[in-house]
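ok so I'm stuck.
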Amino acid sequence: DYGLAHGQLELFYQPLIGFAQRNLLGFEALVRWRHPVLGMIMPMEFIGLAEKTGLIHQLGQWVLQQALADWAQLRSFCHPAAGLPAFISVNLSAPELSAPAIVAQVRDLLSRDDIPPRELKIELTETVIIEDREAVGNVLEQLSALGVAIALDDFGTGYAGLDTVKSLPIACLKIDKTFVQDIGQSLRSYEIVQSAIQLALSLGLTTIAEGIEDEDTANRLSEMGCGV
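replied:
not stuck anymore, here's the structure
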């Protein structure tokens, strides 16, 4: 718990932009460890260790608390479309989403900061679901019942995407950047992204495209009907 104990963890907020009006809809909270010797450490380098040592619950609680505490200020920058909420998006790991206590923690934090549940989006990957499907499924159902939106991250790279969308309360598909960044060069990537967007539209789900780095890609995704 060195990073936590010494206040070296930081949250960076990635803006989420709607294609239709190019308006700021919300932010995704991304945790980083600013080590005094090693410099900036990315989550893929320390989340696994946190899971193995049992510190992931403490880390996840800190991220949730900090993100929701910051949301009051961040919300003021957002301009969602009429009738839609601005939102803050937070990633949770398998151990966190397998623990029933996370539901009460989320509810209490939302109440503490007077945040409507629909302004929180919880992100998970299919790896999280596969590790303990029943426990994770129960937690997701309870979070969804609170009004919290559930997003499936890295869609298109997992093993059971369609089954996951069918059986769990997924409200948003995040299309993996592996496909998004290649839609201008690869017909297969283009068709995969188009299929994911059409699937989401037919099921009433929202979509977020990851890894957009140029105007041409943004325009293509907008034409395909992607939301964010």
